[in-house]
Automatic annotation (TrEMBL):
Ranges for domain TGS: 424-485
Catalysed reaction, written as an equation: guanosine 3',5'-bis(diphosphate) + H2O = GDP + diphosphate + H(+)
Tree of life domain: Bacteria
GO molecular function, one term: GTP diphosphokinase activity
Keywords: Hydrolase
Natural source organism: Thiocapsa roseopersicina
Protein name, entry field: guanosine-3',5'-bis(diphosphate) 3'-diphosphatase
Enzyme class: hydrolase
One GO-annotated biological process of the protein: guanosine tetraphosphate biosynthetic process
Organism placement in taxonomy: Bacteria, Pseudomonadati, Pseudomonadota, Gammaproteobacteria, Chromatiales
Similarity comment: family membership: Belongs to the relA/spoT family.
EC number(s) reported in the record: 3.1.7.2
Associated pathway: Purine metabolism; ppGpp biosynthesis; ppGpp from GDP: step 1/1
InterPro entries: ACT-like_dom_sf (IPR045865), ACT_dom (IPR002912), Beta-grasp_dom_sf (IPR012675), HD/PDEase_dom (IPR003607), HD_domain (IPR006674), NT_sf (IPR043519), RelA/Spo_fam (IPR004811), RelA/SpoT_AH_RIS (IPR045600)
Domain HD: 83-182
Amino acid sequence: MSPFDPGSMQTALVPPIDPVPMPPVHPVAGASDRTPVARYLISDLCAYLETYLPPEQVSEFYRAYLFGAEAHEGQSRKSGEPYIYHPVAVARILAEMHMDYKCLIAALLHDVIEDTSVDKEQVAEVFDEEIADLVDGVSKLSQIEFESRAEAQAASLQKMLLAMTRDIRVILIKLADRLHNMRTLGSMEPEKCRRISRETLDIFAPIANRLGINRVRVELEELGFLHHWPWRRHVIQRALQKTCGARVEMVGTVETALKRALHQEEIHGEVEGRRKHLYGIYRKMREKHRAFSEVVDVFAFRVTVDRVDTCYRVLGLVHNLYKPVPGRFKDYIAIPKANGYQSLHTVLIGPQGIHIEIQIRTEDMQRMAETGIAAHWLYKSGEQSTANATTLASEWLQNLLVMQRGAGNSVEFLENVKVDLFPDEVYVFTPKGRILTLKRGATVIDFAYAIHSDVGNTCVAARIDRRMVSLSTNLRSGQTVEIINAPGAKPNAAWLNFVVTGKARASIRGYLKNLKQREAQVLGRRLLTAELGTFGAELDNLDPIRVAAYLEEANQRTLEDLLGDIGLGNRLAAFVARRLAGGDDDEATQAMQADKDLHPHRLAIRGTEGMVVSFARCCRPIPGDTIAALFSPGRGIVVHRSECRNLGSLETKRDKRLDVEWANEPDGEFPTEIRVEIGNRRGALAVVAGAIAELGSNIENVHSREKDGMTTALEFLILVKGRAHLARIMRRLRQIPLVLRITRIPR
């Protein structure tokens, strides 16, 4: 008897840890139309693991199941079933990929850190650090507060993707987790279904595709399509059923003809005919702006043979059998896709003039197409195709690290990853014959950064097929590109207008951001040194204790950060110099009071003590308005209402944006404009002006404009103490019978 005995195992269990029946494991999309697979007990899963894992590892897996079941005790899913069903189903998906036992244990425990009282240290103590790292990599950042759901989602995905660069099994667990969640998504609220489906189509299905795991990718896409656009899917499915109903005979005819041709040439191979997946058809219709009737190659046939040279023999055979469509042949064997996928693709004109696609590949290529990077664990054969896929995946993971370093925040990082996950590819050559795969629309600059970040940063010119071209030139497949570099060159901000790859965009932004910070520090040092001279002090001889105290007060980590803030105009060098030089505190207080007297409308502005504040005339903010501000040379802080159009047009200048807030009790009166539409009556202006004065507001200016002979628009510039004061004035004016309409300018 093996160390794992299903019978003894089940009797050893005590409530509440009962043997868990496995949920149905559907094949790839379309399985819902078939007879459901029987539910599996945990014993069935362990018995399956014994087919490729040693008994001691299966026993360790079962111990992890007991640990996870106890941790999730009392928890249930939205569908009502015990929560432990989910991690066991995730482990089953990974078991079908023949993943190692530590990956399977991490799959069983992937939610314990996030959803139970168990922490990473406890998992490491009971099992080991490797398993704990895998579980932690999959867990969301639930302990950190974020300003929005999008930021929280982006930060969790960034954490997962960076953990994936250390261990690719993190993303395999997450893909299996997402796949089972999508299979059971029907119990969720419609809005949550759409959100999760959108995220699946935008992030997880493309990641599965990027890693070459086609089986998982197709099912994620089909389930995402089903839950996010159910009506569109229904329409396409109905149209496809009508088409298939009329062409079933044609599919059988082509399949028979292909098998007969292989037999006549004494080629051993398997032929499989299928219709294309619904989401693939929908995406083609959307991207190429075609109606369903124009998507002609909805039927595909796969021919699987033993060797690579046989693939090319079969290609000639099918071209003799049916006429090929010009320009529709792709050799992914000679030039594999970025995820390692290899196959020959050709489109033929079949019976009745219907276009059909033929895919020709070896058995090893077929395994790679289905399992991608997971084939590294599935076969452990050291085959060339597996090695290529592993190398390509490693290159992509390194690109993720480059993008992470260049991104300003997690949301920007995620956007760069999304760009990188949708490559409609072009294949170009280096002068030494190396093939690079880039997103369609990629430019010379994208090519330079694909080689190395330093090559991109110092790029000054390029040659395509030995001819000089501009750096913004779009690349086409088959071209040979040579980059010309200069030691003193640096990236140009204008490059961001035409680069398309995530690595290039992140590298350029990262370089420019650091460059701007360095320049700001140099300027800040010069400004602060000059101001310190008026106090007879030098920057290098300041009291370290006073400097440290001020840095803490100003919420700056280092003196260099403070200098950069001064250089960017976020702080006044004179004020900082007074504080650092230890000037007379009474004198400083008097200076601040004098500044307050000069500018009574003082705002509480974080990190910008002592700066001059002015108010934008385009929107005239008053206390109570939601506000934002820009730093303007010569004017100091210019405060706008958040909805001001001028603020929006300048929003790209993020280095000039400042966080501002109104003081608790701002002093003084603030100008604002209102438009009052009144009926043309004698004395109307006096009545309105009297009502405004009655509520304690001064009229600075008034302008009248006759509209249609019956009404007049009066535009008042008045002084108010805030929004509440303005609201009282507007309510009072509405009570006047002559007043037809009253609005604030601008709206």
